[in-house]
Amino acid sequence: MNEKNKKEIYYFPHEFKTSVELLSNIVIPEIILTESAYMDMVYIISQSKNDEISWLGSVNKVENIYTIDNVYLFEQTVSATTTEISEKSIVKLGTEMLKQGLIKEVNKLKFWGHLHPGNSTSPSHVDNAQIEVFNKRCKDYFIRGIFGRKGRAEFSLFNYSTGICFNDIEWKFAGIANIQRRDYIRKQIEEKVKKEVITVFPFHNNFKDTATFAEESYFKYGHYHH
């Protein structure tokens, strides 16, 4: 075939599988849980019954080590598959802490932990959307912890300054039981955590129990609504 009459070859987009190659070494961050923070989270989860529940925590950063120092409950409405986080409740928590002289602690509230149904620690689409809300408050970084009901906990670090998200970061803790602190947590939950009121309709055979249906949907489809 004459070179001048050679047929052109057209290219079309394929199914992309984009990968990222780092041109410099990235130091993986490490998360440390203080004894008080770890045990408070254990007690919060143990007192949550069958409902989800959320809490915030203060973080102390030294180089690439992020230490979760203290945990704070805030007012929220919960159900078997949801924990409602409102701007008003977070502002109220900050105001209470300021009245107690915890100014530095308020500025270090860069950790959000919450309980999932079952033992899955994979984030839902609502979990990811919630992180965008926290991003408005924390311009440098934020940590999310998702806790299952059978001992699994997974932490993600969103480094907004570098645009990098680290998932399933290695974490460590040291803790011993503190019965008085457990009882304090129980009272905090009674004061601040309200059960979601669900309207009960007449039972029909083709309806399943709401909580059972929600949990089955979670395992079947891999997501639920907050």
Summarize the structure.
The protein is an alpha/beta fold and 226 residues long.
Explained architecture:
The protein is an alpha/beta fold and 226 residues long. The chain has helices spanning 35-46, 87-99, 103-107, 125-135, 179-192, 210-221; strands spanning 30-33, 54-62, 65-72, 76-78, 109-115, 141-147, 153-159, 164-166, 171-173, 193-195. The strands form 2 sheets. It has an 8-stranded mixed β-sheet. The protein has a two-stranded parallel sheet with strand order 4-10. Helix 1 packs across helix 5 (179-192). 25% of the residues are buried. The model is unreliable at 205-215 and 217-226 (pLDDT under 50).
- SSE order: EHEEEHHEHEEEEHEH
Give the end-to-end Cα distance, rounded to a whole number of Å. Answer: 65 Å
Would you tell me the structural class of the helices and strands?
alpha/beta
The portion of residues forming beta strands comes to 15-25%
Tally of contiguous helical segments: 6
**pLDDT under 50 segments (min length 5)?**
205-215, 217-226
Major sheet attributes: 8 strands, mixed
Mean pLDDT: 84
Strand order of the largest sheet: 8-7-6-5-2-3-1-9
User: What form results from the Cα inertia axes?
Assistant: elongated
Our Rg estimate from Cα atoms comes to 22 Å
How many E-type strands?
Answer: 10
| DSSP helix fraction | 25-40%
